[in-house]
Amino acid sequence: MLSFLDFEKPVADLQGKVHELKAVAGTGETVEVSQEIARLEQKAEQTLKELYAKLTPWQKTQVARHPDRPHAVDYISGLIEDFTPLSGDRSYAEDAAIIAGIGRFRGRSVAILGQEKGADTQSRLKRNFGMARPEGYRKAVRIMDMAERFSLPVVSLVDTAGAYPGIGAEERGQAEAIARSTDAGLGLSTASVALIIGEGGSGGAIAIATANHVAMLEHSIYSVISPEAGASILWRDSARAQDAATNMKITAQDLIGLRVIDEIIEEPLGGAHRAKEIVVDRAGTAIEAALARFDGMSAEEIRAQRRAKFLEIGRTL
To answer: Has this prediction a pTM greater than 0.85?
Structure first.
């Protein structure tokens, strides 16, 4: 059953009435309820359309974090053929928060990096809720080095609240690992595309998002810090997360205006979680078009384009 967010309560109430009427119709009683069901379904869709036409940044944050939103594993299974996962950083351990490997994407071989939050309690614990430790970022560097060696484009699927801030992660060099992953992405001689599919939080996101082309789903977010953490720092009150979300300019619509990202991918009405196959296909089309733009470009031209893109951020505000 679909989970409704707090601001979607009017839609949830209407859908509840629809289910009740369908249950009555299923009993075989003579009460004719089909017209009322159709009216309520139409009203629910219209209400949903009105809600999503004017989402606030905080509401978009809630949509980006929706538990049913498609994750990296959904995009990989829907877009990548013959996917071969590659594990471990060859230094310390495997980190399940980052999925890495190689496969075939619409006729071309690619390297894949994806941050995976998990879909249920067991998988979320295994994936550490998508918050990678240093070994995850060192694994990402290993895959990027492999992509460099074999001239493979790199596709990154970004979805994390941030890098894991635990003591063990800090002891093993979390900041250094993030910096090296960011540097590896900037230095790639092959084309790279990053797609923000949910949350893009802090250095944990940028570590695999320093790409030639950065796209965001319509209701995803991308920021230097989570709204809750930002509120705690700015106002010493995490309850002001809504204010932080508004002032930090974290939505795709804000960021394309600031030229931080290059493209917004439209989501189905009500968010990506309501039509996963549609949004995965749209993402694939956007990735394919982005990679095609770099066909025929030399390694120097690809690196120069990426460097210019990131150096330009903030200079034309």
So the answer is: yes
